[in-house]
Design goal:
The protein is an alpha/beta fold. The chain has two domains: 226 residues, Aldolase class I (TIM Barrel), CATH 3.20.20; 77 residues, no CATH class. It is 43% helix and 14% strand. It is built from 14 helices and ten strands. The strands form two sheets. It has an eight-stranded parallel β-sheet with strand order 1-8-7-6-5-4-3-2. Strands 9-10 form a two-stranded antiparallel sheet. It is globular. 46% of the residues are buried. GO terms for molecular function: monooxygenase activity. Pfam families: NMO. Keywords: Flavoprotein, FMN, Monooxygenase, Oxidoreductase.
Length: 323
C-alpha cells in the first residue's frame, strides 16, 4: 500500500483521484473509483441544475459508502451559472471534498471551512498554487502541459512543474497531466507529489459513461493525436485532433475571433461525441496520455494495476539500483 499526506488528509486508500470531467463525472464512474480505493469526483456543472447535482450525489451514495468529491469549475460563461447554489447543495449533502478549478476559490472558503470541507484546487502554475495555499485550500492539483482540457499558458511540462511545486509548497499536492499507469505514479512520487489525478485514463474505463467508440478512439490514438485550440485567445485547451478542432484552430490562426468558431466548439457538440460515439461530431478533450492507453479495464482493475506496478518499481527496480 502507498500511503501519502494526501491519502491521510482525505481518508482514502490509494493516492489516485479521478479528475472532474464535463459530461463524464457522473455517479457510476465516481462510485467505481471510490469503491476501488481512489477518490471519485462528480462534476457539478455536468448536472443541469443544483437540484440535479443533489440527486446525483444521492445516487452516488447508493453505489458507494466510501468518500467521493465534487468538482466545481468556475469560469466565465455565456449564460450565468449559479455557482453559489451548486456549492450550497454540495455542502448541504455532506460532501467533504471539493475540487475547485478556474477562478480563485477564496469567496467560498469560509463556507467550506465552516462545514469541514477539504478543498483541492487545480493549478497550472506554481504561483497559482502558492496563492491557493495562502487562501487556505488543503491541497492542490498541479496540472502539467500534457493534460487534457486547460493546461494554462506557460507550457511547462510535469517533469519541471512538479519538483518546482514541491520546492515551494508546504501543503500536499497531486500531479495531473500525462498520468495513466504505475510508472507515472512512481515518477510523480519521486518528483515530490503526494498522488496523481487522472482524467483521460478514467475516460477509457468500463464504467465511464461515454460511448464505446470514444474509448476505442483513445486506445487507438497516440500521443500525437491531440491539438491545442484557443491559443490566440489565451485560453488554451488540449483536445482530440479531428476535423472540427483542426478547422477551429485554422480559423483562429488566420485572425478569427471566438464568434467565428463558436459553432464548431460548442459544448453541446462535444457532449454528442460522448453520447452518440461520432468522434468527429465536435471538439472533445483528451490528453497526450492516450498514447499510453491500450485497454479499457474496470476502475478496480486499473487502480489495482497502477498501485501494484508503482510498488514494484519503487521497491524493486529502483531499490535494486542502490548499492
Amino acid at each position: 500500500m502507498i500511503t501519502t499526506r494526501f491519502t491521510e488528509l482525505l481518508g482514502i486508500e490509494h493516492p489516485i483521484v479521478q479528475g472532474g470531467m464535463q459530461w463524464v463525472g457522473k455517479a457510476p464512474l465516481a462510485a467505481a473509483v471510490s469503491e476501488a480505493g481512489g477518490l471519485g469526483i462528480l462534476t457539478a456543472l455536468t448536472q443541469p441544475t443544483p437540484e440535479d447535482l443533489r440527486a446525483e450525489i444521492r445516487r452516488t451514495r447508493e453505489l458507494t459508502a466510501k468518500p467521493f468529491g465534487v468538482n466545481l469549475t468556475i469560469l466565465p460563461t455565456i449564460n450565468p451559472v449559479p455557482y453559489d447554489e451548486y456549492v450550497k447543495v454540495a455542502v448541504e449533502e455532506g460532501i467533504t471534498v471539493i475540487e475547485t478549478a478556474g477562478a480563485n476559490p477564496e469567496p467560498f472558503m469560509p463556507l467550506f471551512k465552516e462545514h469541514g470541507v477539504k478543498v483541492v484546487h487545480k493549478c497550472t502554475a506554481v504561483r497559482h498554487a502558492l496563492k491557493a495555499e495562502r487562501v487556505g485550500v488543503d491541497a492542490v492539483s498541479i496540472d502539467g502541459f500534457e493534460c487534457a482540457g486547460h493546461p494554462g499558458e506557460d507550457d511547462i511540462p510535469g517533469l519541471i512543474l512538479l519538483p518546482a511545486a514541491a520546492d515551494k509548497l508546504s501543503i500536499p499536492f497531486i500531479a495531473s497531466g500525462g498520468f495513466g499507469d504505475g510508472r507515472g505514479m512512481a515518477a510523480a512520487l519521486a518528483l515530490g507529489a503526494d498522488g496523481i489525478n487522472m482524467g483521460s485514463r478514467f475516460l477509457a474505463t468500463q464504467e465511464a459513461p461515454v460511448h464505446d467508440n470514444v474509448k476505442q478512439a483513445i486506445v487507438e490514438g497516440s500521443e500525437l493525436d491531440t491539438i491545442l485550440n484557443f491559443r490566440p485567445l489565451r485560453n488554451t485547451v488540449r483536445v482530440r485532433k479531428n476535423a472540427v478542432s483542426t478547422e477551429a484552430v485554422d480559423i483562429l490562426a488566420k485572425g478569427g475571433e471566438f464568434k467565428d468558431v463558436q459553432h464548431l466548439v460548442a459544448g453541446a457538440r462535444g457532449r454528442k461525441v460522448f453520447e452518440d460515439g461520432d468522434i468527429e461530431a465536435g471538439q472533445w478533450t483528451v490528453g497526450m496520455v492516450q498514447g499510453l492507453i491500450t485497454d479499457v479495464p474496470t476502475c478496480d482493475e486499473l487502480i489495482t494495476r497502477i498501485i501494484r506496478d508503482a510498488e514494484q518499481i519503487i521497491t524493486g527496480r529502483l531499490a535494486d539500483m542502490v548499492r
